[in-house]
């Protein structure tokens, strides 16, 4: 009989803060090839909200524990596990259901270990958004140092990581946001140009960049925002859509597709994790990103942390726009 611990569960999809409940859950016995983790921190991402409302690209069988990413401390290891020790801080394997106090996972799925030093909350956000920024910059267009890239939702966590990685790779960024007053936020994250979205974006961006050609546009918003990015691209440029924040279809004029050879493509980390990468590639990418996070070169702002007991408040908070940063759950914190 395992220990009884708290977990968040959803048994139906619907309004995200309505469908999450705090329940008692028995921690399963640790099998010979498994490890038991105490969950230290887990982020609430837009994809989690889409999962709770039933609108994400992969949906779990219900009831399920939400949370695709997080960080944990190894508490116990199975008899056949020799390369992980109690006390080690690790990335919880993707899609393990991290909004709970304890989770048991296969030891060979634990691909990333973290040093004892460093901010666990920053490490907790490594699984989804940093490699998405990496994929967007590395897998769509061959970029050279000095090239320009444009992205929208630039003050999001992915947006911040994209600006920081772009700097590391010697790229320049135009960063589009949907509201005024974010110039300092963008320049503190390493962004070169900040612009508020709008129908005249192309003209303003050409002025700000002295007409430098932009071959890659990174789109988390869709709707009219896709066309606004297209207006900023050089002929032959590519828009990588990776988010559906506006909940609208991507709009793109056929004139741009036909006469200017603008391409619209999609990027989804889940496909890279499950289909397009080897364990060695994943280890190399996460290793690179973990190093940048440990050094503080990659960082996402955090607006608030919540104990598990306040999960409904945490989810409601994460659904609000105009946040200064992420909402993080600390499952084993007092509260
Ligand atoms: N394809 C993939 O593999 C992949 C992987 C990871 C993330 N994502 C996607 O990346 C996007 C950003 O995720 P995140 O975790 O970085 O987000 P986040 O830190 O939670 O920030 C949310 C961002 O969305 C903006 N926003 C919300 N609603 C909007 C709307 N209707 N129009 C324009 N902007 C809007 C917010 O702007 P304000 O501050 O002005 O409210 C904020 O910048 C999400 O769409 C997420 O699903 C995709």
Overall shape: it is globular
Rg, nearest Å: 20 Å
Number of strands: 15
| Beta-strand content estimate | 15-25%
Task: Provide the helix percentage.
Answer: 25-40%
Structural description of this entry:
This protein has helices at 16-19, 46-53, 120-124, 129-138, 157-168, 183-188, 201-208, 224-230, 254-259, 269-276, 279-294, 311-319, and strands at 4-9, 21-26, 34-44, 71-77, 89-91, 102-106, 113-114, 148-151, 172-177, 193-196, 214-219, 238-241, 263-266, 302-307, 326-330. It has 2 domains: 4-125 and 300-330, Medium-chain alcohol dehydrogenases, catalytic domain (Quinone Oxidoreductase, Chain A, domain 1, Alpha-Beta Complex); 131-270, Rossmann fold. The strands form 3 sheets. Strands 3, 4, 5, 6, 7, 14 and 15 form a 7-stranded mixed beta sheet that branches. Strands 10-9-8-11-12-13 form a 6-stranded parallel beta sheet, sandwiched between helices. It is built from 12 helices and 15 strands. Helix 4 (129-138) crosses helix 5 (157-168). The model has no long low-confidence stretch (mean pLDDT 97). The protein is of the alpha/beta class and 335 residues long. It is 30% helix and 24% strand. The structure holds NADP nicotinamide-adenine-dinucleotide phosphate (NAP). Residues 45-47, 128-129, 132, 153, 155-158, 178-179, 220-221, 242-243, 245-246, 267-269, 321-323, 326 line the site of NADP nicotinamide-adenine-dinucleotide phosphate.
Features of the shown structure:
single chain, 335 residues, alpha/beta, Quinone Oxidoreductase, Chain A, domain 1, Rossmann fold, 2 domains, six-stranded parallel sheet, 12 helices, binds NADP nicotinamide-adenine-dinucleotide phosphate
């Amino acid at each position: 009989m395992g220990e009884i611990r708290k977990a968040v569960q959803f048994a139906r999809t619907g309004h995200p803060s309505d469908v999450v409940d705090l329940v008692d859950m028995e921690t399963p016995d640790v099998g010979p090839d498994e490890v038991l983790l105490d969950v230290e921190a887990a982020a609430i991402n837009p994809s989690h909200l889409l999962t709770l409302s039933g609108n994400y690209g992969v949906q779990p069988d219900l009831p399920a524990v939400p949370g695709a990413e997080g960080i944990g401390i190894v508490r116990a290891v199975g008899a056949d596990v020799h390369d992980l020790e109690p006390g080690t801080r690790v990335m919880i394997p993707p899609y393990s259901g991290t909004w709970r106090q304890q989770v048991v996972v296969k030891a060979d799925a634990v691909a990333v270990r973290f040093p004892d030093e460093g901010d666990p909350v920053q490490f907790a956000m490594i699984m989804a958004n940093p490699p998405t920024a990496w994929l967007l910059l590395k897998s769509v267009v061959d970029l050279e140092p000095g090239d320009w890239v444009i992205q929208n939702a630039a003050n999001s966590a992915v947006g911040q990581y994209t600006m920081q990685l772009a700097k590391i790779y010697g790229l320049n960024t135009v960063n589009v946001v949907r509201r005024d007053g974010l110039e300092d936020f963008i320049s503190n994250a390493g962004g070169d140009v900040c612009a508020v979205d709008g129908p005249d974006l192309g003209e303003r961006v050409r002025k700000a960049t002295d007409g430098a050609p932009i071959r890659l546009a990174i789109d988390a918003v869709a709707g009219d925002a896709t066309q606004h990015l297209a207006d900023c691209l050089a002929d032959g440029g590519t828009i990588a859509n990776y988010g559906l924040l506006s909940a609208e279809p991507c709009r793109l004029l056929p004139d741009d597709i036909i006469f200017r050879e603008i391409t619209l493509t999609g990027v989804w980390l889940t496909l890279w994790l499950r289909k397009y990468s080897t364990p060695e590639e994943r280890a190399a990418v996460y290793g690179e990103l973990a190093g940048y996070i440990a050094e503080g070169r990659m960082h996402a702002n955090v607006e608030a942390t919540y104990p598990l007991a306040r999960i409904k408040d945490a989810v409601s908070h994460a659904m609000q726009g105009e946040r200064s940063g992420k909402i993080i759950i600390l499952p084993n914190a007092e509260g």
